[in-house]
Amino acid sequence: MIYTLHWNGTLVNVMCCLSGSSGGVVAAVTITSGCLLEKVRSRISGWASRLLSPGGRITLIRSVLSSLPLYLLQILKPPKAVLKKLESIFARFLWDSKDHTHRLHWKRWKDLCLPTEEGGLGFRRLQDLFDTFSLKLWWLFRSQRSLWAQFLRGKYCQGTHPILVSVPYYASPVWRRLKLIGPQAES
C-alpha cells in the first residue's frame, strides 16, 4: 500500500508492506527529488532580479547552491539524472543573462569543476561528493565499533571480510552502497 502524507511541508509517498510471519509493518519513505530541484530553482529565481556579476554567480554556486543537496547525498543515492539536472541548473545560472536568454556555455561543467590551479573554477561535482560521502560511510563502518556497524557486520559479514561477501537480494540500500565503494576504499 502506498500512502501520501505531508512531511515538513512536502508531499511524501510512504510505502507500507507486511513483513514476516508476525505481520509487522515495515515503512519505507520515498522522497521525490522534485522538492530538491524546486528548492534550487526557487533560490535562483530569488536572485534573478538582481544584477549579479559573474564573480557573484560563482560565489553563490560555490557557497549556497552546491550545499543544498549535501544532506541528500549523505543519506540517499539520488538517480544520476537528478545529479545531471542539478548541475545543468547550476551551469544555466552561471552562463545565462539577466533577461533569461540562453547564452553560450564557454566551458563544460566538468571542466569548471577542476581546481583553480588546473584552469577550473573550483566547483564540486555532485557525483564526487556522493562518492566522498560513501567513502566516509565505509571508513565509519570499518573503523568504529558503533551499534550500526556491528549490526551490519553481524547481518552481512558473519566473520568474513566485507569485500569477500556477496550482496544478497535482501540487502539494505546502505549495504549495497558500502559494497559498491568498498573495493575503491580498500585499495
TrEMBL record:
Tell me which domain of life the UniProt entry assigns to the organism this sequence originates from.
Eukaryota
Keyword annotations for this protein, in alphabetical order, are: Nucleotidyltransferase, RNA-directed DNA polymerase, Transferase
Q: Which GO terms describe its molecular function?
A: RNA-directed DNA polymerase activity
The UniProt record lists the keyword Transferase: yes
Q: What PANTHER family does its record include?
A: REVERSE TRANSCRIPTASE ZINC-BINDING DOMAIN-CONTAINING PROTEIN, REVERSE TRANSCRIPTASE ZINC-BINDING DOMAIN-CONTAINING PROTEIN-RELATED-RELATED
What's the protein name? RNA-directed DNA polymerase (Reverse transcriptase)-related family protein
In which organism is this protein found? Abeliophyllum distichum
